[in-house]
Write a structure and sequence with these properties.
- The chain is globular and about 100 Å long.
- By secondary structure, it is of the alpha+beta class.
Length: 721
C-alpha cells in the first residue's frame, strides 16, 4: 500500500498501530527518492527502503503540501455531521474521498497551491473544530490504516483511488470551505434546511455572516476576514431577544401543570453547575420531564421513554408535530398565544436572537417520506426479473453438492444465509468449500475470516483445489501439490480475503467492503443493462466473534446489529451473504450425534436422533438464534453422526446430515448422504484412495496426492478451470 502511494508521487509516513500520527522526529522532512523508493530524512543522513519502513501491521500516513506534489486534504471534523452531509453541495468534486464506517466521506483530497494548515474552528463550548485544510507540514492517516476507534480507513464508495486528485485554486477551495461551515451553522440553528443551502454559495460574505446565529457570528466573521461587530448590537435587537426569552419563561409558568414546582432560575439540571445561570427550568414530580430555556448552545435534550419528545420540551406536542419545529415557528406560536408583541416579532425577524437548541428538532435521521408507494411501483421490474431467472439469465451460486443445490432451488440466491454448527463440525471448511467452488466458477467472493489467519486459509484453499489434506500442507508434510501452477491458479481466483485483527473486527466494515467488491467485479455479476446475472458471495466466519465500534455494546445487541448489517448487504447489493454461526452449549449434543429423545416401548424402545425429526426441529439451535435467524432467508444446520471406535481408527469419514431448517422461498428438508473427512465434504462416501480423517495417525499410510489435471466439470455440469 505504501509503495502504491509513493508511485503516485506522495510521501508515505509510517505510523504505529492504533495511532493517528508518527512518533519519530523529523517526519515532516521525509522524502521518497529514486526508482528503488528509498526513504530519506533531511539531507539524506537516514536512508531506509520503503518496504522496511512499513514492515509489520502499523498504519500509513501521507505527507501533505509540497512534499506530495501540492496535495491538500480537507478534513471534515464536525462532530454533528452537518459539514460532511452538506460537503457535496459546496466542495469542488474530486475522485479521491475516503473515511471510515462512521464518517465515510470525511476526507477530500485536492491538488492546489501549497500553504500552511487552516482550521475553521468554533470555541470549544460551541462545538470545536468543524473543518481543517491540511497542507505543508501536516500528514493524514490514509486508507489501509486502522483508526484508533477500530474502524478501517478506506476509500469512499464511488471513489477512484487510481485517479489523480482534482486540481483547484487555493482561493476557491478556502472560500468554499468557509461557506460550507457557515451553511452548516445555519442548518444547525434551524434557519435553513438542507435543500436551501445552495444559497450559501451565492450570498455576499457579509450577508452570509449576518444570517448565522448570533453566538457564532464573531467566529464566522473572523473566518471571512471581516471586522467583528459589537456583541451588544443595536438596542432594539437586544430588547427583542430579551422579549422572546421572557415570553418563553412566562409560557412555562402559565402552561405547565399546576403540580410542577415553580419556575426557578439557576443551572439546568442537564448541565454542569459552572454553566451559565440565565435559565428557567421546571421539573416534573416524577423527574421524567423537565424544561430548560437558556442561552447555552449545548443540546441538553435527551429522548423520553416513548421517544416522541425530548426532555426539556413542555410545548404543546400536537402543535410541535404539526409544524412548529424551527425557531421561526416557535416565535410565531408564542405570538399566536399572546406571549409576544408585534414589535418584538418584527425585530426578531430582522435578525433572530439565539434560542436554546433544545427547541430545535433533535438531530437524527430524516423524517420518513409521506409518499405511499403501491405495489405498482415495483411489480413490473419484479416480473421482468422473474422472467430473467426463468430464462437462465440470472442464476444462483451453486454449492459443490447437487443434493443441497436441489434443496436450495439451485443454490444460494441473493439473501442472507446462516450456517450453524458446533465446534469440530467443519462449519468453516463447509463455508470455505462453497466459497472456493464458487470462485472457480467466476463468482466474486469476499471472505471475512474473523477466526482463521492467512496461513490457515491459504492451506485450506490449496487443499481444496488439489484434493490434498490441508493440515498436511500446513505442517509441510506433503508439499507435492505446491507447484507454480497451483499458485497461479489461486492468484487468478476472484477471491478477496479479509483477516481480522486479534482485537476484533467491527461489523460496520462489512457494508463498505461489500460495496467495493461490487464496484470491482460489477461486470461479473451484472449485464450491460445493469441487470443482476448472479449474486456475488460474502462469507462471514463467524458471527459470534464480531466486534463493534460502540465500546458499550453487549454481545446480544452486537450480534443483532451485525445480522441486520448482513441482511442489508444482501438486500441492497443483491449479494448472497453466508454467515457462519456457532451453536449454544445446550443444543450442541443434538448436532454432535447424541439422541434427542427415545421412542417406543420395551424392547422396541430406541434413540431418536436430530435427523429423524422434521428439519424445522433444527431451527433455533445456534447462539443468539432469535436475532440471527429473524434476518435469515435460509438456515442450514450441520449434524454429524458418532463414529464407532473401529471406524474412527480406520480413518472412516463422518456421516453428515444437513438440515435446511428454514427457507423463505422453499420448503425445509434434510440432505443426508454427505461425509466429512476432516478436510472436505463429499456427497457419498469417499473411495479408498481419498484422504482420510485419521491419516495423521499413521503418516506413512497417506496416499500420494495427484497434481491438478486438465479442466474438468463439477457435479452440476459447470466447467472448472
Amino acid at each position: 500500500m505504501a509503495s502504491g502511494y509513493a508511485a503516485k508521487g506522495w510521501v508515505p509516513v509510517p505510523i504505529p498501530p492504533g495511532e493517528k500520527g508518527p512518533r519519530f522526529k523529523g517526519w515532516p522532512s521525509l522524502r521518497v527518492e529514486g526508482e528503488n523508493l528509498v526513504h530519506t530524512i533531511g539531507d539524506g543522513c537516514r536512508r531506509q527502503p520503503l518496504v522496511d519502513a512499513f514492515a509489520g501491521d502499523g498504519n500509513i500516513g501521507i505527507l501533505m503540501g509540497d512534499a506530495s506534489g501540492s496535495l491538500v486534504d480537507v478534513d471534515l471534523d464536525d462532530k454533528n455531521g452537518d459539514v460532511e452531509r452538506l460537503a457535496p453541495r459546496f466542495l469542488p468534486p474530486t475522485p479521491l474521498t475516503f473515511g471510515r464506517a462512521s464518517k465515510p466521506r470525511s476526507h477530500w483530497l485536492y491538488q492546489t497551491e501549497p500553504a500552511h494548515r487552516v482550521g475553521l474552528q468554533l470555541p470549544k463550548d460551541l462545538g470545536g473544530m468543524m473543518l481543517e485544510i491540511r497542507s505543508t507540514g501536516c500528514q493524514t492517516m490514509a486508507p489501509g490504516s486502522v483508526h484508533p476507534s477500530g474502524e478501517w480507513v478506506q476509500w469512499s464508495s464511488g471513489a477512484e483511488p487510481t485517479a489523480p486528485p482534482a486540481a483547484v485554486s487555493r482561493g476557491v477551495l478556502d472560500d468554499r470551505c468557509r461557506r460550507l461551515c457557515a451553511a452548516a451553522l445555519l442548518v444547525r440553528g434551524g434557519l435553513l434546511d438542507d435543500d436551501a443551502t445552495a444559497a450559501g454559495l451565492d450570498l455576499d460574505s457579509a450577508e452570509l455572516c449576518a444570517r448565522v446565529p448570533a453566538e457564532y457570528q464573531a467566529t464566522v466573521r473572523q473566518w471571512f476576514g471581516l471586522s467583528v461587530e459589537s456583541s451588544a448590537g443595536p438596542r432594539g435587537k437586544v430588547d427583542a431577544s430579551n422579549d422572546v426569552r421572557e415570553a418563553m419563561a412566562r409560557y412555562v409558568r402559565e402552561r405547565t401543570p399546576s403540580d410542577w414546582p415553580e419556575s426557578s432560575p439557576g443551572p439546568c439540571p442537564a448541565h454542569s453547575d459552572d454553566g451559565p445561570q440565565d435559565r428557567h427550568f421546571k421539573r416534573a414530580p416524577d423527574s421524567h420531564r423537565w424544561l430548560c430555556f437558556g442561552t447555552h448552545p449545548a443540546d441538553c435534550g435527551k429522548p423520553t421513554a416513548k421517544g416522541d419528545a425530548y426532555t426539556g420540551d413542555v410545548l404543546d406536542l400536537d402543535a410541535y408535530r404539526a409544524g412548529h419545529r424551527g425557531q421561526r415557528g416557535l416565535v410565531d406560536y408564542l405570538k399566536a398565544q399572546g406571549y409576544l408583541s408585534e414589535r418584538a416579532v418584527s425585530e426578531w425577524a430582522h435578525k433572530p436572537p439565539p434560542l436554546p437548541s433544545v427547541l430545535t428538532p433533535p438531530k437524527g435521521p430524516a423524517a420518513p417520506s409521506l409518499e405511499l408507494p403501491t405495489l405498482g411501483a415495483t411489480v413490473d421490474e419484479s416480473f421482468r426479473r422473474f422472467k430473467r431467472r426463468g430464462a437462465g439469465e440470472e442464476t444462483p451460486i451453486p454449492t459443490p453438492w447437487p443434493s443441497l443445490n436441489k434443496a436450495l432451488n439451485g443454490g444460494f440466491w441473493p439473501g442472507m444465509h446462516v450456517l450453524v454448527g458446533n465446534t469440530g463440525s467443519g462449519k468453516s471448511q463447509f463455508a470455505l468449500q462453497i466459497a472456493v467452488h464458487g470462485a472457480e466458477l467466476g463468482v466474486p467472493v469476499l471472505y471475512l475470516a474473523l477466526e482463521l489467519g492467512h496461513a490457515d486459509t491459504d492451506a485450506r484453499v490449496a487443499a481444496l483445489l488439489t484434493d490434498a489434506g490441508w493440515s498436511d500442507l500446513y505442517y509441510g508434510r506433503n508439499l507435492q501439490p505446491l507447484c507454480d501452477d497451483l499458485a497461479e491458479r489461486i492468484a487468478a481466483l476472484p477471491f478477496v480475503r479479509i483477516v481480522a485483527k486479534p482485537y476484533g473486527w467491527p461489523y460496520g466494515d462489512a457494508e463498505p467492503l461489500a460495496r467495493a467488491m461490487l464496484d470491482r467485479y460489477r461486470s461479473a455479476v451484472r449485464d450491460e443493462a445493469g441487470h443482476v446475472t448472479r449474486p456475488f458471495l460474502v462469507v462471514l466466519d463467524y458471527l459470534q466473534i464480531v466486534s463493534s465500534n460502540q465500546p458499550n455494546e453487549e454481545l446480544r445487541e452486537r450480534i443483532g446489529k451485525a445480522s441486520g448489517a448482513c441482511r442489508a448487504i444482501a438486500r441492497e447489493l443483491d449479494a448472497a451473504v453466508l454467515v457462519v454461526s456457532s451453536t449454544s452449549r445446550e443444543n450442541g449434543g443434538a448436532l454432535a450425534g447424541q439422541p434427542v429423545r427415545s421412542e417406543g416401548k420395551g424392547d422396541n424402545k430406541g434413540p431418536v436422533f436430530a435427523w429423524d425429526e422434521p428439519p424445522s426441529f433444527m431451527v433455533g439451535k445456534g447462539k443468539e438464534a432469535g436475532e440471527i435467524e429473524f434476518c435469515a432467508d435460509s438456515v442450514l444446520v450441520l449434524a454429524r453422526e458418532v463414529l464407532t471406535d473401529a471406524a474412527r481408527l480406520a480413518g472412516d469419514p463422518t456421516p453428515i446430515h444437513v438440515a435446511v431448517a428454514k427457507q423463505r422461498a422453499g420448503a425445509p428438508s434434510w440432505v443426508s448422504g454427505m461425509y466429512f473427512n476432516g478436510h472436505r465434504f463429499t456427497e457419498g462416501k469417499p473411495g479408498p484412495g481419498a484422504v482420510k480423517f485419521g491419516a495423521w495417525l499413521n503418516p506413512l499410510s497417506r496416499p500420494a496426492v495427484p497434481s491438478p489435471g486438465p479442466a474438468r466439470k463439477d457435479d452440476c455440469g459447470f466447467t472448472l478451470p
